[in-house]
Amino acid sequence: MTETRKPKTRVAVLISGSGTNMASLIAAGQAADAPYEVVVVVSNVADVAGLDKARAAGVEALAVEHKAFGKDREAHERAIDALLAERKVEVIALAGYMRLLTPWLVRKWAGRMVNIHPSLLPLYPGLNTHARAIEAGDLEAGCTVHIVTEGVDEGPVLGQTRVPILPDDDAETLSERVKAAEHRLYPQTLAAFVAR
């Protein structure tokens, strides 16, 4: 008797730049036994390297530029949401998406949108996480995957990886080591999240 496998969860990745985390999510999702697949990548900025990486991996990649919507952030998000609905997306993964989300989008995707953040939340939400950890004299930094809620980087933690801060680290060297940890943590955590 052949085992019927549950269809893969359809994931959209939202990016604003180079898309290194996005690339790791796509690669992991293309494995035969992965519980999810990235079906579309959307950037709020045109001509970013991440869109080219997604296309090279065989994934549809689109830009919905926020500048075209002026200060109306919700209208921009509604345009993205319409694209995701057309593609039957079930989960959103934010990967270097550098926009504060409106309550409208967060509520619409409540419990179905995840993000990766380059600190050990609840420490250092927001920006400049590596410099802040070094300045505080912390012995370790890391990364966190969490569910997106209306507060910035406040949602329930799904997974974390710790990275030691070395005596000669600066924000850039620490960032590179944390990024390597992110590329392992995010696909594993997303897979566990969609398989729940």
UniProtKB/TrEMBL annotation:
Domain of life: Bacteria
Active site annotation, chain numbering: H117 (proton donor)
EC id: 2.1.2.2
An annotated Gene Ontology molecular function: phosphoribosylglycinamide formyltransferase activity
Pathway field: Purine metabolism; IMP biosynthesis via de novo pathway; N(2)-formyl-N(1)-(5-phospho-D-ribosyl)glycinamide from N(1)-(5-phospho-D-ribosyl)glycinamide (10-formyl THF route): step 1/1
InterPro entries, per the entry: Formyl_transf_N, Formyl_transf_N_sf, GART
Catalysed transformations (reactions): N(1)-(5-phospho-beta-D-ribosyl)glycinamide + (6R)-10-formyltetrahydrofolate = N(2)-formyl-N(1)-(5-phospho-beta-D-ribosyl)glycinamide + (6S)-5,6,7,8-tetrahydrofolate + H(+)
Binding site for N(1)-(5-phospho-beta-D-ribosyl)glycinamide: G19, T20, N21
Keywords linked to the UniProt accession: Purine biosynthesis, Transferase
Record has Transferase as a keyword: yes
Site annotation Raises pKa of active site His: residues: D153
Sites where the protein binds (6R)-10-formyltetrahydrofolate: R73, M98, R99, L100, L101, N115
Domain Formyl transferase N-terminal intervals: 10-190
Family: Belongs to the GART family.
The protein's role, per its UniProt record: Catalyzes the transfer of a formyl group from 10-formyltetrahydrofolate to 5-phospho-ribosyl-glycinamide (GAR), producing 5-phospho-ribosyl-N-formylglycinamide (FGAR) and tetrahydrofolate.
NCBIfam families referenced in this protein's UniProt entry, alphabetically: PurN
Protein name according to UniProt: Phosphoribosylglycinamide formyltransferase
